[in-house]
Automatic annotation (TrEMBL), chains A, B:
Residues 480-566 form the Non-reducing end beta-L-arabinofuranosidase-like GH127 middle domain. It comes from the Eukaryota. It comes from Phomopsis amygdali (Fusicoccum amygdali). It holds the Pfam family Beta-AFase-like_GH127_cat. PANTHER family: DUF1680 DOMAIN PROTEIN (AFU_ORTHOLOGUE AFUA_1G08910). Residues 82-452 form the Non-reducing end beta-L-arabinofuranosidase-like GH127 catalytic domain. GO terms for biological process: carbohydrate metabolic process. Residues 1-22 have a biased composition (Basic and acidic residues). Residues 1-30 are annotated as: Disordered. Residues 584-695 form the Non-reducing end beta-L-arabinofuranosidase-like GH127 C-terminal domain. This is Non-reducing end beta-L-arabinofuranosidase.
Amino acid sequence: MRVDLELSSREPGPRDSDKPRETNPQSTFTHTTFNGQSILAATRNIISKNTLQFQLGLLKSTGRYDCFKLKWHPIYDDHRFWPVPPHLFWDSDLAKWMEAAIYFLSHQYDAELDQAVKHIVDTIRSAQREDGYLNLHYILVEPGKRWTNIRDMHEMYNAGHLIEAAIAHHDHYKTDDFLSVVTKYVHLLHANFGPGPGQRKAYPGHPEIELALLRLYKTTGDVKAYELARFFLAERGNPTGQDGQHYYDWEMVRRGEEEHKRPNSYPMSRDYWYCQAHKPILEQESIEGHAVRATYLLTGVADLVCLHKDGTQPLADAEEWTAALHRLWDNMTTKKMYLTGSIGAMAQWEGFGIDYFLPQAPDEGGCYAETCASIGAMMLAERLLYLELDSRYADVMELCLYNTVMGSMSRAGKAFTYENYLASCSGHLSRREEWFECSCCPPNVSRLFGSLGGYIWHFRTNDEISDDGGHVEEEESAHINVHLYTSAKLEFKTPRGRTVSLEQKTNWPWEGNVMFTLTQPRATSLRTTVRLRIPSWSRGAYVLTPSASPETPAALEKGYLVLSSEYIAANPSFSLAIGGFEPRFIAPHPRTNQRTLTLARGPIVYCVEDVDNGWEEDHFKDLVVDDKALPVAEEEREWGGERYVALRARGWTRNVGGWELGGRAQDEEKGVERDLVFVPYYFRGNRGGKGHMRVGLLRP
Amino acid sequence: MRVDLELSSREPGPRDSDKPRETNPQSTFTHTTFNGQSILAATRNIISKNTLQFQLGLLKSTGRYDCFKLKWHPIYDDHRFWPVPPHLFWDSDLAKWMEAAIYFLSHQYDAELDQAVKHIVDTIRSAQREDGYLNLHYILVEPGKRWTNIRDMHEMYNAGHLIEAAIAHHDHYKTDDFLSVVTKYVHLLHANFGPGPGQRKAYPGHPEIELALLRLYKTTGDVKAYELARFFLAERGNPTGQDGQHYYDWEMVRRGEEEHKRPNSYPMSRDYWYCQAHKPILEQESIEGHAVRATYLLTGVADLVCLHKDGTQPLADAEEWTAALHRLWDNMTTKKMYLTGSIGAMAQWEGFGIDYFLPQAPDEGGCYAETCASIGAMMLAERLLYLELDSRYADVMELCLYNTVMGSMSRAGKAFTYENYLASCSGHLSRREEWFECSCCPPNVSRLFGSLGGYIWHFRTNDEISDDGGHVEEEESAHINVHLYTSAKLEFKTPRGRTVSLEQKTNWPWEGNVMFTLTQPRATSLRTTVRLRIPSWSRGAYVLTPSASPETPAALEKGYLVLSSEYIAANPSFSLAIGGFEPRFIAPHPRTNQRTLTLARGPIVYCVEDVDNGWEEDHFKDLVVDDKALPVAEEEREWGGERYVALRARGWTRNVGGWELGGRAQDEEKGVERDLVFVPYYFRGNRGGKGHMRVGLLRP
């Protein structure tokens, strides 16, 4: 008989038997410290030192900071973007920044950030209505109209981010000042939305609150939060949910809105695939619409299944939900994801195109590739790793992290991309901006890096009770699954109070050698298993030192090298050398019709930029590289105190003149040969230049 | 001093000095007879024997035939497609069918067609309102709302087709029964739309009436028709035309319609590029939006410039209009046209995508390629040839004719395509339909083939008066420009009553040898010049027999071999052997990112179909051909009494398995080698099969 118990070392709050066990990533990131000079640690330092303060300044100068004081701001009169006014996301901008700031505060005190968080929380508390309602727009700008446009007006989305910020606040400050506010709001929502008579059969146009509610449930055990999330997920896309109608149709009629009046993101009237509400989630065959909404939604679904898996809240149709998760994940990662870990080819709905439609740039048919969407993909991957330890999830998580997500911020931490094209064009140069009117991405990057430890690894502890023919023995076990490699240390206590730590040291992502040291009390019955991801791009090339033996076994399971407790006991220090760091050419799926080659090395995807290749005048549209004829050289470089590996190869520009409609097909004529310099895609756009850049170059 | 005079051998109607000279194609098609067994003559026979009667039956069974009796039809209650009800195009369906039927009647009497035309005209006459207004929808279904939605409701489009049918009716029946009806309607429009105070500053959402009005002007000399057309063209896209507003904004507000209520074809609110009204035509840099609207509009523009060119109605800014024509034509043919002569990649707005965006199928990013759009491109090309004799216009005209347009009809003449994909996919098999709810294409094909002679050649006659130092000599000249080759005969009279005929005999498009015989009175002062197009795909390979000499010169000018009057006088029978009939591989522009090869032979573009290549299960997505390694064999075939040339070559299917995101780029692995059979694209979908087809195959 085995009883799985989860470690819970940090939370105050409910401790009774209703308290659910944690799922992730919230369970590990506070247990992680980063050390050394890795690019991840450097990025965290930049955010900690520059970005959060810089973004705080922008929150102040744009009016966001004090918006919950509920004074009129001129921007509230701005009606350019029907139905969504420019201030509609302010609640979430504040909340995401607070959540990020708190994550960093939990590692290092900063008086300015600390004061700002407390100030914002105070204004939010003061703005909450008597009944618990809390939304800037509907309290101040359109009072009396709350819940009249659940589809477009982001009330629930904003609520979700407030909840997540409140959880972070509660965990760090150990008070309920903010948590009680959002709990009251959640109870109001729970009373008004649900399956009961008289309740609205609605679900948010922009999913987010689902995963936030499930985090809240995991923090406080508040079953209303769980019920509300589960209702939102199960009800979504019901064609006859509200009085026999699709909820969004029903509320549209009540708003007095005609069928053919619709936001610009809806290409056709009532195209509810835009917000994944075209049919119930369990019936959805492919991932569709707005990519951030889709990944946030599926993260919520995965959280629901996680709670089933760990026995906290059983789900009768868990298999169906799991099947939907796998189906939509597979569709996304095999048919709708760029080589950089970006998703979403379509600008109009900020989301997915049809299968295999992955042009590199807006002027080549479409490319949107929003930063937040790849963050959403990482969040989803992290939950899927909890449900099923398979390196294919972690491979995608790492791809998103080191390329789209990390590259969305300048190396100085004060400029950001919203869209992450794989190639620039004259209308969209490879540049970053300080801020956006809808500024979801910049604080989301801060937040992601603030909780980065949760993506690096998972841990779990068990009390095992083996009843061997009347002879009862008890022993503890710890399981650590290492998804990403960097220089960092994980430290946690077992239920019996033993401290376990695992430290990894590496020059990843530039080299594949990782040194591990596990520390735990000697001579205890604590048995520790460590699972190490073997990335698929390594093609299974790895060396474990000391090597395993029949007495200290290690085995590969679904892309993870499982080091048995015997191995760990015998080798508390060990190293893993992962191969695949020679430069390689990668390519999009043949069905994309993008017959291109891209240089990659380890998890890093490369691009060409005009800064290094100054002869380019047209976004490298005609540049050809040959994966067979040309050797690729490596070159260590340093910029702004950070080291990176550049690559050099030969290529040539094709001549495209001479084409005529109906004329004879010509061979692609070799034009000028070029020595090419490639830099990591994340590093693009930091050194000036004309803003010409490309990831996928033509195959010969 | 030269005085150009145009031949006008057929029209009754005004003969005073206001009578404008004709432009084309209306000037030549009634002078042309088709003979022999060419594919064009065969297609005309099919339409004459099968299609017109078949379509008449459909007009009757669907309610169109008697709709102008103004009785209620259940379909008028059908509101599925706001704002356009399904019956909105019925006026034009009837008109286009009548126009087509009359063109064929002018060559051969058919009692059923003749009676039907007369019946429809009677009902139309009886339906016209007292003040001249004439539109089924606004007379019967929404009385009192005329001209409230010029943008979407196709009133002017329907009027245009009625005008064109009335011109055909007038020319054939030599009565004003129908012409007087449309003239009265035009006068009503002229009174209500124009630059004067109190007049509406509107222009049709779907252009068509512009070219129809200019045809009417050329037929009757009615200056009001000219003025109205010119107003529509000049006013179009005026941002402040109506009370300081864009007309479509102005009328939308008057309808009580909000900005964000819009038809499904408008991806964003107020996207007036959909109907080429985003800016004035003279300022438009690229061809945009709905492809049929665009080509019809530019045909009207070209007609306007034609009237300037021949001195009938001077146009102060003719150079600007000409520049706009060239700019938009060039954009269309070099960046937005498929290899089959199709245009329009985007289904949502039935029109143009961005430059170089030309996927082959809906499941590969988009392909719409409407039949009517290629007919519009032919109409435009024909006018441009009148303005500037350059074979590049005729090359496109021929490409459209033999591929998209001819292929839109089954060889039995009773099934049609609306969209002409270059590749089938599971949602869009390569099939034809008998009819469509919006059935613009089928009668348009009939109409095009009815007036085909106007596209084959142009002619012009001059009275030349040379005043050589007091010694006045008069002589006549005739000029015949041969754009397309087929077995046909052109016959016309000069102003002095001399009959000239040019006959061509050829097995085109299968062979390039064309025999010409010019017949004209012997020993007169009539000097005749013949210009013969040398297609660009022939790469200038041609042999003229007898050959030219210094005394009987011939010279190549802009892709036309100009046979001097001396040559013609010496060689009334001559032949031209054009090369380029060996199979060739053609390819889309490199910038399309469609790295494919297509077989062509002469003007015929080829495809593969599963009927001949029965192993195919997935629309030939993985089929590769090599233009260098493989010989292409020809094979004469016969089907349904028609001969065609099939092609055979070797190819192979690539293996696409084994791809993984971020994994090493693989060489495209050769799978199974195949003997491939290629048939003309126009011939596709006639022999059953699974409906799998593709034009562009992968390059190795």
